[in-house]
Design goal:
Layout: H1 2-10, H2 15-28, H3 31-36, E1 48-50, E2 53-55, E3 59-61, H4 72-76, E4 82-88, E5 101-104, E6 109-112, H5 121-128, E7 136-140, H6 151-162, E8 168-172, H7 187-202, E9 210-214, H8 220-233, E10 237-240, E11 260-263, H9 267-281, E12 287-290, H10 296-305, E13 309-312, H11 314-319, H12 322-333
Parallel strand pairs: 3-4, 3-13, 4-7, 7-8, 8-9, 9-10, 10-12, 12-13
Antiparallel strand pairs: 1-2, 5-6, 6-11
Family: Belongs to the dihydroorotate dehydrogenase family. Type 2 subfamily.
Domain Dihydroorotate dehydrogenase catalytic: 46-333
EC number: 1.3.5.2
Length: 340
Amino acid sequence: MYKNLIRPILFKFDPEEVHHFTFSMLKNFPFLTRLFLPKPVQDKKLEREVFGLKFKNPVGLAAGFDKDARLYNELSDLGFGFIEIGTLTPKAQPGNDKTRLFRLKEDSAIINRMGFNNEGVDAAVERLKKNKNVLIGGNIGKNKATPNEEAVNDYKICFEKLFPYVDYFVVNVSSPNTPNLRELQDKKPLTELLGTLQHMNNEKDSPKPILLKIAPDLTDDQLLDIIDIVKETQIAGVIATNTTLSRENLISETRSETGGLSGKPLTKRSTEVIRFLSEKSGRAFPIIGVGGIHSAKDALEKLDAGASLIQLYTGFIYEGPELINEINAKLLERAGRLPR
């Protein structure tokens, strides 16, 4: 119903405005979810235990969709096994100038240059206090005005304030839409940043998993550095991957817009990164696979490549909530062979 009835209507309007409209409808008219959307697939066989957390199923919602923790309970009701909020920054910021979100329909893709628009970590914390047992990941970043030399302080603030209210953390240094942010992926500053956060984490009575979200545009040598950094800092794992700067083989008119590209054009590369990290590290740490998952086949390929969990974003927008059920139903068919 979503692809044939709802999506054609939504896709006639500005993507960012549609996003806010959809949030309003799900928040204020929850009966529409029950009326028009499929009942989630639920089964004990879908449960996964990864970095010490129990997920009701391995299909999560990636960061960027519910930046300010406004709709995590309602989105969980669609069948997601976990919800990642953010990217959050210490101070509220408007993000980049509009227009900053573009559909590439012919490529089943999206380009965004949102720029960490969010209401700040304190606003999210107030909403997370109303959590009804949804497993939450907290994706954290730095404010645009904060120079890279002081970036660690922004991450520390977000970590400390979110700690009581999230189940795991994601350190985002891979967005292409905050100037110079990706420079923090270099080995020295990244090791220092993750080491600082892990030290704070280890001082807690019950430390929580810290993951690193990386770009798909890293070279093999840079990916080897990531493996070394994960081992050295002893963080819990990696999310592969964020959006790409590549525009290879795109056909949509809006392909030249600046920003991060997500969707089907990223399917192959994100899976390659997952496989590289898994094989070269000897499966030393869990990986959450994200990027270009538009079908159950795409999801299974990422799991077979070495991912322990997966996340949806652009595929969820194009394929709808039915995609969550499609993936979980296929996982149940081969539950005995799914890597854990």
